[in-house]
Write a structure and sequence with these properties.
By secondary structure, this protein is α/β, with parallel strands linked by helices. The strands form three sheets. Strands 2-12-11-10-9-6-3-4-5 form a nine-stranded mixed β-sheet, sandwiched between helices.
Length: 376
Amino acid sequence: MRAKLKTVRTFPRPARRQFLLAAGGAATLPLLGGCGGPELLPEAGVPESPFDKNSTAEEVTADIDLSGKLAVITGCTSGIGFETMRVLAARGAYVVGTSRSLTRAESACHRVRGICTPVALELSDPESIIQCAEHIRSLNTPIDILVCNAGVRGGGNEVVLVNGVERHFAVNHLGHFLLVNRLLERLYLAWQGRIVVVASRTAYRDAPEGGIDFDRLDGSGLYRDREAYGQSKLANVLFAYELGKQLRGTRITANSLHPGVIDTEIDRNLNPVLQVGFRVLTSVSGKTVEQGAATSCFVATSPSLGAVSGKYFEDCNAVRVEDNPHMQNDALAERLWDVSAEMMAPHMVELRRPDWSEFENGLRRRGANDEKEDSG
C-alpha cells in the first residue's frame, strides 16, 4: 500500500509579510540551538577521541581502509549524506546510496570517486522500504555499516499525516525502524556491523516535556513543527539506545549522534524567511558539510568504538545529557520499541540470529536453507 499523505491546517498563516520577517528572525535562533541548554558530560566507559567540532569526515577516517566492506547510507544526494558517502567510498567501501528520487541518487553516485550503487527509498512508504531492503539483500553480502541519515524537517503550522501518523515521526523514526528490521540479518553476517542513526540535539531541546507523546502521534491538538521534529529526533536516540541493548552479545553496535548545525537541504520545508535566517546563522555559528559528516563517519568506522553501543555522540565524542530524563530512559525506549513494532507489524520480519554453521566467509553456503533465505 502506497503511503497516504494528508495535510491538516491547525490555524491560519500570518497574513502580513512584515510579521513573517519579524517572526522569522526570532524563530531562527532556537533552530540553531547554540546557546544554553543542558550540560553535556563525557560518557563514562567510552574512549575520548582526538577529534572535535572542527574535525572533518576525511580527517576522522584518515588511515582507515574500508576495502571489502559494504556501507548503506540513506539520504545520499546532498549535505552530510553525500559527504558521508563520498568519504566512505574514498576509503574503499562499496556504498549503497538511497534517495527518494532514483535519478538524484544516480547523479550523486556518479559524482563520487569509488564504487556506489543508487537505490530508490521513500521512507514514508513501507512498500518502498521493503523493495529497497530486498534490492540491498540481493547483493548477497554482509552489511558492515548502515547510516540512517535521511530525514524531513519543517512544515509550518500544517500537520502532514503519513498513513495517519505525523510526518516527522513517520519518516524520521518509523521509516528507519522498518529499514533496520529488514536489513538486520545482513548486519549479523558482518565481522563487526555498525548502525549509525543521525539524530539531533533537538532531541533534548525541543521534544515534548514527556518525551514521546504516544497519545498524539497523529499531531492532534496544539501542533508545533519544531516540537514534532524534536520528538522524532528523540525517537532516533531512543531507538539506537534500545537497539544497542537488544544487540548485546552480538557483533553489531548501534549509536546515535548530533551532526552539528549545518545548512543542508533538510530545511527545504521551512518557511522561506526561516530558511534565509537559518543560512545566515549557520554561516556564522554552524559547521561546514565536511565537518557535519565527521561524527557520522567517526561512529561508523573508528576502531576505538568496536564495543561501544547504545550511546549518543556530539562532535565525535560520546556524551551524556545532564538532567535530561529521556535520552537514556529504559522504560520510554522499550515502550517506543513496542509501539513502533506494533505500528509497523504488517511489514516486519521475524529475526533469528544466524546459525553460523550454515555460513562460510560471512555468506550462506549454496544450498543451505535456500528456501528460508528466499522467503526473507
